[in-house]
Amino acid sequence: MKGTVVYLLAASVCCALAGPIDLLKTSDSVEEISPRAELAEYRLNDDVMPSHYDLTLTPYFEDEDTHQAFTFDGISAMTFRVTKPGVTSIVLHMWKINITSWFLKLSSDSSDVPHGVESYDEETHKLTIPVNQALAENTDYLLIFNYVGLLDDDMHGFYRSYYKVDGKKVWMASTQFQQTHARRAFPCFDEPRFRSTFQVRINRPSNYKTFSNTPIIRQTPLSTGRYQDEFAKTPAMASYLLAFIVADYEVNEKDGMGILARREAMNQTDYSLQSGIDLLKAIETWIDYPYSSVPEMTRMYMSAVPDFSAGAMENWGLLTYRESNILYHSSDSTSLQQQRIAAVISHEIAHQWFGDLVTCEWWDVTWLNEGFARYFQFFGTALVETKWDLALQFVVEQLQGVMQMDSLESTHPMTHNVYTPAQVSGIFDSISYNKGAVTLRMVEHLISTEKFKNALRQYIKERAFKSTRPENLFEALNEHGDPTVRDFMEPWTVQPGYPLVTVIGSDDGYSITQQRFLVNNMNHDDKSTWPLPITYATKEADFENTKPTIVNTTTYKITVTKPEELSYFILNNQQVGYYRVNYDADNWAKISKALHSENFGGIHVLNRAQIVDDLFNLARADVVKYDTALEILDYLQAETEYPPWLAAVNGLTTLSRRIHHEDDEKFAKYIVQLFSKAYALVKFNAPTAEESRLFTYLRINVLQWSCNYGNAECKKAALEEFVRFYEKPTEKVHPDLRQVVYCEGIRQGTDEHFDFLWDQYLSANMATEQILILQGLGCAQDREQIFKVMDAITSDDIRPQDKSTAFSYLLLNPYTLDYLSEYLRTYYVRWANAHGSYSNVASAFNNLLARMKTDEQMWRIRSFAARNEQVFGETAYKSIESGVEDYFVNKNFTEKHRAVIGEFLDKALSKSGAEKVTVGILTLVAVVVALLR
Fold first, then answer.
1. Terminus of the chain with fewer CB atoms < 10 Å: N or C?
2. Residue 348 annotated among the catalytic residues of the structure
């Protein structure tokens, strides 16, 4: 019986629980290979500057005369000037389009300009147009292209998607041009520094509607039976911000805001519409630059797109979203999904200024777009949703989240050179997003919120309709904050990583030193230092002071009278500073005593979360012994707040992967014990209207971990709720309990229960509900069921955007690992075809290797890869070999720390009489049998 086995969590669930996922725009699936051209060759020069594009597009969703389905005809007329004398060629981008004819003309009289034969570089996507004599300065030219493009299904460029009505596919087309995909829709200068206006015309079938950045100004019937929709000219903007949609969509519109969606989803648009209205008003007031100040922006549309590679996209005036990030209904969406929708809308609205109005000059400073948008994702949303405690969530999700990546030697600085499409795609990561926002928050606390706001208002006004570099931001911050703000901020943007600050007590105070924190190599010789924002607390009231003293020296002394009499000394109030802290043994003992005392010794909730996160990572880095860290962290048994528990979940997730497989049951018993008081606090109940949002989030985390690791009461309650739903499907489970209930129903249920939930997935009209069901199906333990999910991932039943998500939910479940390995070794060709390359097969194997705990599991994969090296190709095969190396690193870590961790677990369990856990599980067996008869 599946319910009799303790379930061991082997991968992080925090991303599903902790609010907005790490990235709103996921990196494109561009395989990183060694560039064949010189890096500089991937960039355009500034000899030619475009000023305007006239575009006419005709998409085909079925074969029509000589036109093939899923292609489009294009006509592009680009106006440009040269910027200097002697220019004899025009170089621009195009990719995956077939030019049938082109013309170079003088704009003034349409006369031909003599030219040579064009050439194209497939590697750099550059199209070169030679001219017979130098082009004249201060003269407008026209470059006209007739071409055919593909409405591909890879969610990039101008691409096709679909939704179903009465079981039949209804095709549509949408765009995703960031970072380098406008060139797939029309030949263009596809870099963010080239700003142009755009006039778009779309020749649509009569049963479709069209939408773009600006409103339609003219509709004309054509002799073909189509209609031409002409849109107003856009403001001057980068090519990646152009957008258009061809779909039979409806609009829910008021007060200049509209939500576009398929007709069947219109009942899910009211919340996002009102949220968009409120957030736009709040953010434009904060920035003091009304959205309507741009004359062309007379309204804002936000569209739900069924297949979308990114989380959302900030196209000026036509924001596009995954359905799960904008469609909401209170009866089927969780509290966390509601928060994510508001936060994503806030992120994209913030981009209307930080990205659209003011655009990063090149993707090496992507953080100037994404760091600000991530900042407003939390602090902009908080202007409207004042009861969600988003400032508290920010620290654990964003600051502590990016610290994981930024503690590796493979990290990079915020400002980082990129050239190729793959490199550009790669920099859209948590360094640009999270660390960008974290650095901005540090500066805000340094100079005050009011000065920070005034500096950004000046920055926006001065850089409006221009490109920007970090020095432009630094100048505004210096002027409104302090002349030394740049000196503080710049090192955080140009250096990778962050410091570990070590605090050593003495008779007259505390000495602090800093060293770069590398979690896998603290014996490095990197001498990097950062300007440290220092605050500290010795009592509860001190934690409210977050204005730091900046320390620019490698060592620093804080003088304190009678430090031996202090209850504790804690650095970095409310974790505003981006660094970790380690203390000497005496101060750690004081902190531990305070945490185990009433009201946690008055330590601020964010500093409790900081301590939790630091201890887990200092133990990983061998800076603090595991038994010391775990003994302090045992205070969590009394913790009642969400931020420290979320930090704990993150740390415990990583630790669970490093527990020796023979100690898994012992670790499971400890987890049930650690969460027992929190479980008694939150109970297996639906949230009430009176409880705080963070309490609801705490419950979701606690229930999931308690059920996963064998809390008998939790498992019984969840299974009963699933069986009730199975018997009466019209009586739905509360959305905030579905993740746990679906999982437990599949874990303990029968094949009939699995098929029932799969049918619910196929018939669901809400993307958010489908995600919850995929999480539940990922809890399967039966081989046949796991293979069914994998078959679905490689079929059309699961949308392309959700395939990796569905696989990640299976990876959370350690009982799937051997079956996933077997499936991939058997059906690797099918997996490669479904995901586009053998590199995706290698990536799947590497995800397995990161979670596997035995040599037998590893050798099955390694020997399979060796037998199929020629099939996989050099890049994919080397990737798997790298995954094997990581397996041995993890194995060595486990063996090194097993004894210390095991002794702690034995000691902790002996104190509590944890044998009750086993009794609870045996009792549960009878309950399961009774429920499933």
1. C
2. yes
